[in-house]
Amino acid sequence: VTSRALPLRATPSDNSAPYRCEAGPARSAPVRLRVLFPAQSVSISVSPREPRPGHALSLTCRAGPAHPGPELTWIRPG
C-alpha cells in the first residue's frame, strides 16, 4: 500500500471544491470538500429610512454566504 497526504487549510472558498487523486494512468478517486463556515457578515436595513409613528415599516436582515446556511431569528428586547 502506498499513500500520500495533501495538507491544506480549508477556507470558505474551498466549499464544494473538487479534488482528485490519481494513481497511474488508469486509476483515480474524486472527492468534493464540504467546508463548514459561519456567515462573514450580517446587516439590517430599514424601509422607509425614517419611519413615523403609526406607519408600516420593513426590517430586512441579510447574512453573507455560510455553510450550512444561517438561521435568522428576530429578537426584540423587553
Automatic annotation (TrEMBL):
Gene3D superfamilies: Immunoglobulins. Residues 38-78 form the Ig-like domain. InterPro entries: Ig-like_dom, Ig-like_dom_sf, Ig-like_fold. Residues 1-20 are annotated as: Disordered. This is NPHN protein. It comes from Cinclus mexicanus. The gene is Nphs1_1.
